[in-house]
Specification:
Elements lengths: L3 E4 L2 E3 H18 L2 H5 L5 H11 L7 H7 L12 H10 L5 H12 L5 H12 L7 H7 L4 H12 L12 H9 L6 H22 L15 H5 L5 H8 L4 E4 L6 H15 L5 E4 L3 H15 L4 E3 L2 H14 L5 H14 L3 E4 L2 H4 L8 H7 L4 E5 L6 H18 L2 E6 L4 H8 L5 E4 L2 H6 L3 E6 L6 H12 L4 E4 L3 H11 L6 E4 L5 H11 L6 E4 L13 E4 L4 H8 L11 E6 L12 H15 L11 H8 L5 H15 L10 H10 L3 E5 L3 H9 L3 H5 L3 E3 L1 H9 L4 E7 L5 E7 L1 E4 L3 E7 L8
Pfam family, one: Cas3-like_C_2
Protein name: CRISPR-associated endonuclease/helicase Cas3
GO cellular component, one term: cytosol
């Protein structure tokens, strides 16, 4: 009997092991920190053994019949990984290493809870608990496997014990809290690395790229004369905080820092962390243009989740065509530099599906955080804990940059570890004076204010208008766009497909009216003549101002701030902070012709944010306390937390009902990214409101060509490619979709 691992294409067991060993060697090169983190064992040798042993249970005769297409097979949905475990007992290695090997191998497809349920269902009827398993193991072609191990991998075994894994796996579940901290990390990294090897090997991925310091030399070529803070960043080794003005080359500083880390401390994934989707897309395109698409990727959570689930459920029967598609999709996930939201990293702390792979990727990683001040107290608490965890447990290095980091937030960060603090030179700040603040009475929507903006457009000015809510942005855009030759609306209520189109329009210099929300505040390389903005906290306004006269080629440009907020703004920003900001800017507007002195920005921020306010501090402390007590248990997926996590942190994605037919076609074609790009992300508060509205929101699902059901929420509101989701306009109720 042959030893088969896959049926289509027909792949022998040793072929699959060798495919996985190719990935193993790339991981060894690309993640050297793993062996330093797990220093009490030879991590790479243990992983090599895990790769060799993980699928030996496929030597079962009934599994062979299944893959060979024999209809009379009696495999009956057994788990091949369980039949791999007795072979580990035959190794001449330390018992502790055997334990970790067996756990990592057992859980390389399903988590321990699922395996325990499986054992109870398949083998639990026999009160002895092991007889049926022993009988089944007797159908494994042990002599053939031993021959392959000896000849192909120079591994000799003795004293194989075909005992049921029931007690071993149940013991892990019920004693999981007794795991020591270093044991948890060991299992996380070992299982995560094994899953990477298995998934990528199954997808026939034959190479994994890495980033070198030399590939980042383009930064110095583009910026032949570095600012002082850029030079200091290029020399800094380890955790660093940079504070410098908008438009002063913070991104280049971060890349110069990264170049130094790669040259000094070695390989590791890089995660470029940004708060808004628009800024993520813009940064992705910017870095991809310099480094190439094989080096830079964006984390598509649903694609990654789908690929992992698909391979776990169908790894033996995946077709040649599927393998090609999966290989190409995995390449987009496994780039050495990823542009992400913090939530795509935070989810691993909650043990959501794929968390072991995620933790492995953060071993020795380089994390770059841009504008870390932009998050809520709850999210900032989680980010602080993430930074603490990856520095202390995973030997990661962190670079944090901001134009406006309140001192009390900086103190929170410095309580984690020692950071090197780099600040732009005072002489540089003087050359960055470029804005004159003008306080306009009333709110943005007042007729006289809208008329004034129209006059500025008619005078030929490139105008940026920033609103605090999507609804206001949509209404303002409808009023102003007829007067603009090229107008763009940018906010969070577009789906991914249309948002990308809007962002592409911004890449040139033709747009003379941009109306947006907070989505324009971070990492968008745009430059306007004037800004009209609703009142917001000082740090948010400074970011908005940074989109005007960015290159300092226009002298001193006016930045207009309205002194009256819309009633809905109180749900977005703290009213006291906004009131303090307007008061401060009014004071500035009456002095020195209203010119904003960049070197005083930190002082302005600290005047508004003297410290945490009582409510925000309570939220922050509560969130940090809660997550500090979280226990990350390897091999146990927290399925209950998944939906709650996405609702809490990453918003909820909904599908406009008018796009359901297109969505179904994408899902049928297994194009998960295409399908996800049709969805709109909405806030948790908005989702809760919609649930209470009759006929506004309902659950649905779509089936892939392979019969896998993909659930989604359908929203029965009008969607416009030009305006986005219109929450006040109901689509005609379509009962046939239910």
């Amino acid at each position: 009997m042959e030893l088969l691992a896959k049926s289509n294409p027909r792949t022998y067991l040793n072929e699959h092991i060798n495919d996985c060993l190719v990935i193993f060697r790339y991981l060894q090169h690309n993640f050297p920190a793993a062996a330093k983190i797990v220093s009490d064992i030879n991590f790479w040798e243990v992983l090599r053994l895990a790769v060799i042993f993980h699928d030996l249970g496929k030597g079962h005769v009934e599994f062979y019949k299944l893959l060979n297409g024999e209809k009379d097979h009696q495999w009956d949905g057994q788990r091949h990984e369980l039949f791999s475990l007795p072979f580990v007992d035959g190794l001449q290695v330390d018992e502790e290493i055997k334990k970790f090997l067996k756990l990592a191998i057992a859980a390389h497809h399903k988590d321990i809870n699922t395996l325990n349920d499986h054992i109870s269902a398949k083998y639990g009827s026999n009160p002895l608990g092991s007889r049926e398993f022993e009988d089944e193991f007797g159908k494994v072609n042990v002599p053939k496997i031993l021959s392959v191990l000896a000849t192909e991998y120079q591994v000799e075994l003795s004293n194989i014990k075909p005992l049921s894994p029931k007690n071993f796996l149940y013991g892990y579940k019920y004693n999981k809290k007794e795991l020591k901290d270093n044991e948890r990390i060991k299992l996380l990294l070992l299982n995560g690395a094994l899953k990477h090897c298995d998934h990528l090997g199954s997808a026939k991925v034959d190479s994994l790229s890495h980033l070198t310091g030399g590939e980042l030399a383009f930064v110095e070529n583009k910026v032949p004369v570095l600012y002082d803070h850029q030079y200091e960043s290029s020399r800094s080794v380890g955790n660093t905080i940079l504070i410098s003005p908008t438009g002063s080359g913070k991104t280049e500083s971060a890349l110069l820092w990264l170049k130094k880390q790669l040259e000094t401390t070695g390989q590791g994934r890089t995660f470029y962390v940004l708060p808004y989707t628009a800024s993520i897309n813009a940064m992705f395109e910017r870095l991809k243009a310099e480094l190439g698409e094989e080096k830079v990727g964006m984390l598509h959570g649903k694609l990654q989740e789908y690929l992992y689930s698909y391979l776990e459920d169908n790894s033996e029967t995946v077709s040649k065509t599927d393998i090609r598609e999966i290989r190409d999709r995995f390449k987009s996930i496994h780039t050495p530099l990823k542009v992400v939201t913090p939530f795509q990293l935070l989810k691993h702390l909650y043990s959501l599906k794929g968390f072991e792979q995620g933790m492995f990727e953060m071993a020795g990683a380089h994390l770059i955080f841009d504008e870390i001040h932009a998050y809520s107290p709850d999210t900032f608490a989680h980010i602080k804990f993430l930074i603490k965890y990856v520095i202390e447990k995973l030997q990661a290095k962190v670079f944090i940059m901001s134009a406006t980091l309140p001192s009390f937030l900086q103190k929170e960060l410095e309580s984690i570890t020692q950071f090197r603090i780099i600040k732009a030179a005072p002489s540089l700040y003087k050359t960055f004076n470029r804005h004159r603040v003008v306080i306009r009475q009333g709110n943005l929507r007042d007729i006289e204010n809208i008329d004034f903006i129209k006059q500025r457009l008619e005078a030929g000015k490139k105008v940026l208008v920033v609103c605090n809510t999507v609804k206001n942005a949509q209404q303002v855009f409808k009023e102003l766009s007829p007067l603009a030759e090229n107008a763009v609306l940018l906010h969070s209520a577009f789906n991914g497909e249309d948002r990308s189109k809007q962002e592409q329009l911004l890449s040139g210099d033709r747009v003379n009216l941009l109306v947006g929300t907070q989505a324009i505040e971070v990492s968008l390389d745009i430059d306007y003549d004037e800004i009209f903005t609703e009142p917001a906290p000082i740090d948010a306004l400074i970011q908005r101002f940074g989109r005007v006269n960015r290159k300092r080629e226009k002298g001193i440009c006016p930045v207009y701030v309205f002194n009256t907020a819309q009633s809905a703004d109180k749900y977005i920003y703290d009213e006291e902070i906004v009131s303090k900001t307007v008061g401060l800017l009014t004071e500035i507007s009456l002095q020195n012709d209203g010119i904003i002195e960049e070197e005083r920005l930190q002082g302005y921020v600290d005047r508004v944010y003297t410290d945490w306010n009582e409510k925000s501090k309570a939220i922050f402390d509560g969130a940090f306390e809660n997550i500090s007590h979280i226990q990350i248990i390897p091999l146990l997926v927290n399925e209950k937390a998944e939906e709650e996590f996405y609702k809490k942190f990453d918003g909820i994605k909904v599908l406009p009902i008018a796009l359901k037919e297109r969505y179904d076609r994408y899902i049928l074609q297994e194009d998960i990214i295409g399908a996800e790009r049709l969805k709109v992300q909405i806030r948790k508060r908005k989702f809760a409101q919609l649930i209470k509205e009759p006929h506004s929101l309902f659950s649905s699902s779509s089936a892939t060509s392979k019969g896998k059901s993909i659930p989604c929420f359908i929203i029965n509101k009008v969607y416009s490619p030009d305006l986005g989701l219109l929450f006040d306009e109901q689509e005609e109720w379509q009962t046939e979709i239910l």
